[in-house]
Amino acid sequence: MSSSPTSAAPDTAARKSSLYENAAPPLPVLRVPLLNRERELYAYEILFPRESGDDKSLLQSVLGMITDGALTRLVRGNRAFLNLPAELLPEDSDVLLHQPRLGVVLQPHVAEDSALMQRLQSMAHRGCQFILDLGEQDFGNSQPLEVLLQMVQLVRLDASQLSPELLAKRVGQLHNRGLNVVAGHVDDNATYERCLTLPIEAVQGRYLLVPQPVEVPVLTANRLSLLRLMGVLHESNPGPVELGNIVRDDAVLSYKLLSCVNSAYFALPRQLKSVQQAAIFFGVTRMRNWVDTMAMCSMDDRPPELLRAALIRAHMCEQLAEGMPHGSAEMAFTVGLFSLLDTLMCAPMEFLLTHLRLVPEISDALTGRGGPFATILQQILAWEANELTSAQVPAQRIQRLAAVYLNATQWADQVYASANNEKSTQ
Q1: What letter does residue 27 receive in the DSSP assignment?
Q2: For the whole prediction, is pTM greater than 0.85?
Q3: pLDDT digit string, tens, across residues 343-356
């Protein structure tokens, strides 16, 4: 059984956790958030990583994910745009038209295909939404692109390739035409801040996962308290009674912790009434992982998608550490969870680690010095950046990552929802 914080739960939770791994090899899929100006979720882009393959099989797999509800669960019912070749869209696209919150990402070259444009226009008239991924391409003096621009609702520009002046100019032109603009490939905080000065609807890119550069780290009282709690948990190696005493004084954290582990999702045989009981039931090490998880989920001043990303990494690290020596899965979980701690805390990782004093296997992975978990973490980072290829890892490993990723998103969404008293489908 998985060594995740839910691992001590009975078979019902185990079956939920392995929903995708017990089925046929899953279609590699990646959800990438687009956030609005308030750093709330605007929509997901759904990528289908592949180097080459049978287009017909890809389409059948995508349509299968739509019709059986797997895609809706993956995006929690939020708006999402499928990034797959428009040429693969079936003549009868009713499957998309019956999913009003699903749209399609279009590339500029489709404007040159008259038959495909007729099909897309028909879909647009029937309510299907499109993002035109314009990138750095100029849309002036192109009649085919003009027709396409009249069909779409959103246009994505490549903020990494356009100069600040040209980006501002094109955003203004599109905005004046009544089109919503998405700034794509926003991969650093300076570009993100610049985009906020423009009339942009949403922002997408690696900026969300990158720590802000600071000359002198200054932690808020809430973050310092959180860091101290984690430090005590990892330095003192507490038993069940000590763990209960450490958490007991934080009423909110205790409530979140017990609400989550007692939720119907995990199907425990009996209700756990105290942190000490939970530590005995789950084991202290796994319960410490739970405390870390709930503590990070309490950072309500950080974007929810950033917190979900940390949870996804934690679960993926843990699952990929299976087969390693005893205790490795729990340490791997901490590596994944803390891999975004610098971004969440707005402080350098080395500075934070001086307060945490983690075991070398964890701290070495977090600082890039190597160790047994560094390879796992690097593979996960490459996966979420859609940069992992069969030239780097065997095809079986990619299939394994695909299954683990789908499980991790389901787990992360449920845990985040439980910690914040939300419905997991929202």
Answers
A1: P
A2: yes
A3: 999 999 999 999 89
